[in-house]
């Protein structure tokens, strides 16, 4: 935690305007105790970027968070509204949590469920609450 990482993406750069070129921004990885204010499970989720504009935004879901040449997170969600990008920390799936699954798929294995962890929100697959 406290490490500066880089997030890349093609998402919004201003209200309702997506980037025309790949963007990158430095984002500080925040400590798990602070991240736990926003994320349900910090074993699965890490948080990064707490300055306005220093994180991912709408359209960046799935974007990599890279630290020291290693993908450590995959952009997942953020608290607040889309126009608050970077104001609150973005939440990233920890690659370390799903690495066995990734390696299994890369090596021709199953593409079934990643984990038995609880869902990160209360929405069903159909999108209703």
Give the overall pLDDT as a whole number.
79
- Going by CATH, the architecture would be Beta Barrel
> Main sheet, how many strands, which sense, barrel?
6 strands, antiparallel
Which residues form runs of ≥5 with pLDDT under 50? 117-129
CATH superfamily heading: Trypsin-like serine proteases
CATH level 1 class label: Mainly Beta
Q: Radius of gyration in whole Å, from Cα?
A: 15 Å
Residue fraction in strands: 25-35%
Q: In sequence order, what are the helices and strands, one letter per element?
A: EEEEHEEEEH
Number of helices: 2
Strand adjacency order, main sheet? 4-1-6-7-8-5
Number of domains in the coordinates? 1
Shape summary: globular
Helical residues, percent: 10-25%
CA distance, first residue to last residue: 34 Å
Number of strands: 8
Class by SSE composition:
alpha+beta
CATH fold topology: Thrombin, subunit H
Keywords: Disulfide bond, Glycoprotein, Secreted, Signal, Virulence
Organism: Phytophthora nicotianae
InterPro entries: Peptidase_S1 (IPR050430), Peptidase_S1_PA (IPR009003), Peptidase_S1_PA_chymotrypsin (IPR043504), Trypsin_dom (IPR001254)
Domain Peptidase S1: 1-107
Give descriptors for this structure.
29% strand; 6-stranded antiparallel sheet; globular; Thrombin, subunit H; 129 residues; single chain; two-stranded antiparallel ribbon; alpha+beta; disordered C terminus
């Amino acid at each position: 935690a406290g490490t500066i990482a880089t997030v890349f993406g093609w998402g919004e750069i201003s209200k309702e305007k997506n980037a025309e070129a790949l963007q990158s921004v430095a984002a500080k990885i925040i400590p798990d105790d602070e991240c736990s204010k926003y994320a349900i499970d910090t074993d699965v989720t890490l948080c990064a970027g707490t300055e306005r504009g220093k994180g991912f935004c709408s359209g960046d879901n799935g974007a990599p968070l890279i630290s020291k040449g290693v993908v450590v997170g995959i952009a997942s969600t953020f608290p607040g509204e889309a126009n608050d990008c970077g104001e609150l920390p973005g939440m990233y799936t920890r690659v370390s949590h799903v690495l066995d699954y990734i390696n299994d798929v890369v090596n021709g294995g199953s593409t079934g469920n990643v984990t038995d962890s609880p869902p990160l929100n209360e929405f069903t697959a159909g999108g209703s609450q």
